[in-house]
Amino acid sequence: MVECSVSGVLIFGEPDEARIRGIEDKLRSIVMRAEERGRDSWGIVTMSRDGGIKSFKSLGKASETLPKYSRLLDTDTVVAIANNRAEPTTEYVKEKGINDIQPMISEYVVVSHNGTIANDIELEGKYGIRKMSKIDSSILPPLLEKAWDGSLEGLQKILRDEIIGSFALAIIDRRRPGRLWLAVNFKPLYVMWDRELNALFFSSLDTYLEDPDKPPWETNVVKRIEPYSVIEVSREGGWRRLSLWRVDSSKPRRVLVVASGGLDSTTSATQLIKQGYDVTLLHFNYGHVAEGPEENAVRRIAEFLNVPLLEVNMDFFKIVKHSPLLGDGEINRRREGITGAEFAHEWVPARNLVFIALAVAIAEAMGYDYVATGVNLEEAGAYPDNEMEFIRLLNQVMPYAVGPNKHVELLMPVGHLVKHEIVKLGLEIGAPLHLTWSCYDKGPKHCGRCGPCFMRRLAFKINGVRDPVEYDLPPEVEEEYWRGTKPYRTPLPVGKRELTQH
Questions:
Q1: Best CA proximity match to 53, nearest among 113, 129, 104
Q2: Does 361 appear as a known binding residue?
Q3: What are the pLDDT digits (tens) for 411-469?
Q4: Among 23, 25, 237, 416, which is most exposed with the fewest C-beta within 10 angstroms?
């Protein structure tokens, strides 16, 4: 099985005829919308209170043949699961029978599956069971009947330890009517509780569940099931979720910190070390104006923190250009840096997205669990790729960006902080702020007039501490600006650890 749509409904309470009609109409609509992910066949299996099942299946598109069935549900129905199948080339069946159409049915267990079971042949041999069809999905009902004890923990173990492949699953069991199990790894599945119909609907895409004709205050909330999860839902209102991630708590939490050599990423790295993470710095030399001083800064920071440093030299942005940071235009220094601090004059097209994508690839390949960045609330006012929402949304697609059972999560240790709060935190935790480089220019001193210099100076002043770096400003200006502040106290280096560079 490659691409299908899994859909269905769990019905709460004691429905009357009118409510059942409404539930059936909605289910039909969902299944017909879901043929976008499968046009070769469709099937719906319903279960009643006593565990009895009814099956409705047909070849072809649901929109063409489903309307021919006059009645699917009745007031005794408690749950229905459905499937729209797109038949992959590798599983083409010329003469299809009823057992080749999902949902797959065994004596007790019924399963609707989207994805691929790569080890179906091996499972047949291991458990002494036989598929009902050449289709790999048909291994699931007999496997569950043989190996599953009906508990959520038991299902978690089978899906995590026995299944090789991809899946979004809807499972019902005649011995346990009124219960529904939903499970996903990286295949999508969404749920929606319809308040008016008192029923839980689910499908492979949120758009199949939403009603675009209703205003927002009349629509129901649609939620994605968290990737690598298994859920048990009961008609009594029970909802339990377990994770399918394989977690080894004995292993150190390894994090790759995208480090520019500036305040934000340096404070982030130091904070993560304090929190017990195994930190490696990752620095990109991408042909920007401040490449020299940034590279020097990040090397000194890595040595101070006694953590490994990976450096990536790249010429990708030589093609992109269109940014003063890449030498295409002038760095903004008007109005003592205020304008530069509050507007993205020096925007580099998709820079953070490119860096994060490369960092995630390195993390997956080298066994890191996390990628951290120095995005922060202050710069999010001008730069959209510093907004917390940017990282939050990217985290939602991480399970689809890395390989099966690979877990890479994005962290933003200072994502909720503004610049003076970052400086305050850095001072408190002993971050090597004296080694950092913030200026957009190439030095040898900070210019003191670009946006980052302006924010940096003001952030230190707010904290009552003189910035330890030198600025290319008249001495009298500096003395007047820092009057009344305390001198910066250089922290001690973090314990000894070999520095490696690549």
A1: 104
A2: no
A3: 999 999 999 999 999 999 999 999 999 998 888 999 998 888 999 999 999 999 999 99
A4: 237
- The string of DSSP codes covering 134-163 is SSGGGGHHHHHHHH--SSHHHHHHHHHHT-
SS3 47: strand
pTM exceeding 0.70:
yes
* Residue 417 annotated as part of some ligand binding site: no
Check: CB of residue 182 under 8 Å from CB of residue 8.
no
CA distance 223 to 221: 7
State how beta strands 370-372 and 229-234 pair.
unpaired
Give the whole-angstrom CA distance, residue 192 versus residue 214. 15
Cα gap 97→95, rounded to integer Å:
7
How long is the chain? 502
Distances (CA, A) of 200 to 79, 197, 272, 472: 9, 9, 41, 64
How far apart, in whole angstroms, are the C-alpha atoms of residue 414 and residue 412?
Answer: 6
Does the annotation place 266 within a ligand binding site? yes
d(Cα 112, Cα 214) in Å, to the nearest integer? Answer: 30
DSSP conformational letter for 329: S
CATH 3.60.20.10 in the chain is located at 3-243
Give the Cα separation of 317 and 56 in Å (integer).
56
**What is the distance of C-alpha 285 from the center of its chain?**
27
State yes or no: 464 annotated in a binding site: no
User: Which CATH class for the 3-243 domain?
Assistant: alpha beta
Half-sphere exposure of 96 (CA within 13 A, CB side): 17
* 292 catalytically annotated: no
- Give the position of tokens 């394989």: 246
Residue 261 annotated as binding site: yes
Contact between 81 and 172 under an 8 Å Cβ cutoff? The reply is yes
- With pLDDT > 90 as the criterion, what percentage of the chain qualifies? 74
Q: Is 48 a known ligand-binding residue?
A: no
- Find the catalytic residue in 2, 3, 4, 61: 4
Q: The domain 254-481: what is its CATH number?
A: 3.40.50.620
Which among 326, 341, 375 has a CA at the least distance from the CA of 449? 341
Q: pLDDT band at residue 167, thresholds of 50, 70 and 90? A: very high
pLDDT in tens, 83-128: 998 876 666 666 677 888 999 999 999 999 999 999 999 999 999 9
Rounded to 5 degrees, what are φ and ψ at 29? Answer: -60, -45
Average of pLDDT values for 195-212? 93
Residue 265, annotated ligand binder? yes
Q: Is 259 annotated as a binding residue?
A: yes
Alpha helices in 16-119 (DSSP H): 17-33, 62-65
Which phi and psi (to 5°) does residue 104 adopt? Answer: -85, 135
Residue 145 CA to residue 229 CA, distance in Å, equals 21
